[in-house]
Amino acid sequence: MECPFMAATGCSYRGGVCYKIVEKCEGCGRIVEVTSGSYCSACPEPSVKWKIKNCNLATHVATVPTEAKVKINPLKASKRGV
Asked: In a 10 Å sphere around its CB, with 0-12 CB exposed, 13-18 middle and 19+ buried, how is residue 65 labelled?
């Protein structure tokens, strides 16, 4: 498998290595198993993706769209009879 971070001089990612997946990555479809461990095929450092929120590349996490609440002007609502 070809790594997107591999350059002619070697790994172009910080430190020159890819990091192993974190516990939250278990079940994702982007995990690649190699002899040295499990790695993400899309992100060289998975812990950074999970630091703030859910990973945006995770295939096992479903995002639920939230409904935007519409603010109603009270004056117009009273005229409408709502």
From this structure: exposed
20 secondary structure, DSSP code: B
pTM reported for the whole predicted model: 0.63
3-state secondary structure of 54: coil
How does pLDDT run across 8-43, given as a tens digit for each residue? 777 777 777 788 888 988 888 888 888 878 888 888
Within 8 A by CB and 6+ apart from 78, the residues are: none
Closest CA to 55 of 11, 15, 23, 18: 23
- Domain borders along the chain are 6-80
